[in-house]
Design brief:
442 residues, alpha/beta, Arc Repressor Mutant, subunit A, Aspartate Aminotransferase, domain 1, Aspartate Aminotransferase, domain 2, 3 domains, three-stranded antiparallel sheet, 15 strands
Length: 442
């Protein structure tokens, strides 16, 4: 469709109405994937509205993942989903080093715990948190939060927790600070909800101080931070960095700080908090999916009382609560010595395999910073997409860092890869192939 024909279909005079007209054109197929939109100036002139109105309309569409800005090349209808997602490459003949999954053989066997989980049935109106899990979780969290007697909530995993926490505090188009590069699920949650994502750079010590300060100057109402094993970089907050971030936040006590400590029991790094003792709105989220398995969709949220009350409104007993069978199963495993030994074995395995691969890459002059987590953030000094394409020719399916970026116009120069499932021979072959792929992508 020509721009002139497209503009004639717009009748709205507000940012929301213009965005809705564009969205309708996309839904009807009048604007296909990759189609260009009129420039802000030309559309504003044609409609007789202020340019800022069109800017706001395009921003709404971008936050929803419907369009993407290409700088001087203009604004275009998105060719793909707003964000990628974690998971296997189904039916691919390539060796998958992109998925980011835990090792299934190192997830505790739940069969023995199932017997103790199937106690009496739970009826409508009962407490949403099973007493056994609540007692265990309180002891687990008490040393890592500003309030010695936190309010606890159980959600259907960390994704559910972050989504509900943001929803109880924000309205559409509110600004939220997220790490860049960042966790795919967080990026997706923010975009689909229509919040404005404010990118905060991440370095070897975690979220940067200047980045957070800049985000706060832009009026963010919430911050999502990964204190350790940041995905995709593997960075963990240093003691000094956490202290500096707390000092910046001291002047913003009502900005909601969500700490997503997803790796918790598997981490080799200490937990360091950016939530100060006087901070008013905060939440610490710990899920069990990395060590009890993704299908154990359960997370524990410790938060201030105000946030807990608002979060509880979205978890009605009997409708949106988390199954007590699931809670009891998680509790039985978390208190079982054999299961905990398996979790410790998994933590050692991930750390050892990642360290071994870093050493192999070092021999090829590829310096991968020491990190934590299931994956490695590998600098390739080239367009990562081109390196990933070269790896495909050599039988490997890797993930370019572009998918984890927020609003970057330049191509990433990192790959996020998963290597803990590869044996020594496979790791050696991958290291050689990666070095060759980087050279070929020159």
């Amino acid at each position: 469709m020509e721009h002139s024909d497209f503009v004639h279909k717009i009748t709205g005079r507000t940012a929301a109405a213009i965005a809705e007209d564009v969205r309708a054109a996309i839904d009807r197929g009048d604007l296909g994937a990759g189609a260009s939109l009129p420039s802000v100036r030309s559309l504003a002139d044609d409609l007789g509205v202020n340019r800022n109105t069109v800017v706001a309309a395009y921003r709404h569409l971008s936050q929803a993942g419907l369009v993407e800005s290409r700088g001087r090349a203009g604004t275009h209808v998105s060719r793909s989903a707003a964000t990628a997602q974690e998971g296997f490459a189904l039916e691919s003949p390539l060796r998958d080093i992109a998925a980011g999954n835990p090792d299934a053989s190192l997830i505790p066997d739940a069969s023995r715990a199932l017997a103790s989980a199937s106690a009496r049935p739970v009826l409508y109106g009962e407490p949403v948190i099973d007493p056994g899990l609540e007692s265990w979780a309180r002891e687990w969290l008490v040393g890592d939060i500003p309030d010695g007697a936190p309010r606890l909530t159980i959600t259907n995993g960390a994704f559910d927790a972050v989504e509900r926490l943001l929803a109880q505090a924000l309205m559409r188009d509110d600004a939220v600070a997220i790490e860049d590069p960042g966790f795919l699920a967080t990026i997706r949650t923010v975009r689909l909800a229509g919040y404005r994502a404010i990118a905060v750079p991440v370095d070897a010590e975690g979220m940067t101080v200047d980045g957070l300060r800049d985000a706060l100057s832009q009026g963010v109402r919430a911050i999502v931070v990964t204190p350790r094993a940041q995905n995709p970089t593997g960075a963990s907050l240093s003691s000094q960095r956490a202290k500096d971030l707390r000092e910046v936040l001291a002047d913003h006590p009502y900005v909601l700080v969500i700490a997503d400590d997803h790796f918790s029991l598997l981490s080799k790094r200490p937990y360091r908090s950016i939530i100060g003792p006087a901070h008013e709105r905060w939440a610490l989220v710990r899920s069990v999916s990395k060590f009890l398995g993704p299908d154990m969709s359960l997370a524990i949220v410790a938060s201030d009382a105000h946030t807990a009350d608002r979060l509880a409104l979205r978890l009605s007993p009997g409708t949106t609560w988390v199954s007590h069978l699931l809670q009891r199963l998680a509790h039985a495993q978390l208190t079982d010595l054999s299961a905990r030994a398996t979790i410790e074995e998994a933590a050692d395995h991930y750390a050892e395999r990642n360290t071994a691969f870093r050493s192999l890459l070092d021999a090829y002059g590829i310096d991968v910073p020491v990190g934590d987590g299931l994956t490695l953030w590998v600098p390739v000094r080239r367009d990562a997409g081109r390196v990933a394409a070269q790896l495909m020719r050599r039988g490997w399916l890797a993930r370019a860092g572009d998918e984890f970026q927020i609003g970057h116009r330049e191509h990433s120069r990192h790959l996020r890869i998963t290597v803990h499932h590869l044996d020594d021979t496979e790791q050696e072959r991958l290291a050689a192939d990666l070095a060759s792929a980087i050279h070929a992508a020159t």
